[in-house]
Amino acid sequence: MAPITEPGRIHRLDLTRNPLPVAFALPSTHAFGLAETVELGRSLGRLPKFVIAYLVEGAQFETGAPLSPAVAVAVEEAVERIILALSAIPRTPQAEGTARHA
Question: Which segments in the chain show pLDDT lower than 70?
Fold first, then answer.
C-alpha cells in the first residue's frame, strides 16, 4: 500500500475480513488503537456483520492545531459518504423494531 502522504485524502477500508493495513496502523500513545480494537473483536468473534472504516489523512498534528482546509473539506465529504452508505442499507422489519426499542 502506498505511504500515507496526502492530507485530506479519504480512504474507505473494508475491515470485515481483512486487518487494517500496516500503513494505517501507526504507533499510538494510546494503549489500544483502531487496528488492535478491530483485531480483538475479530479474535473474540464479536465483529459486526460489516466493518467499514473511513479514514482521512491529516496535515497538522500539534496539540491544539486546527484542521487544515483540505482536511476540513475531506471530513465533510467523508460524512456525506457515510450517510449515503448508511441510507443504502436495506432495512428489515426486525431492524426497524429493534431501532424503536433501542
Answer: 1-4, 26-30, 94-102
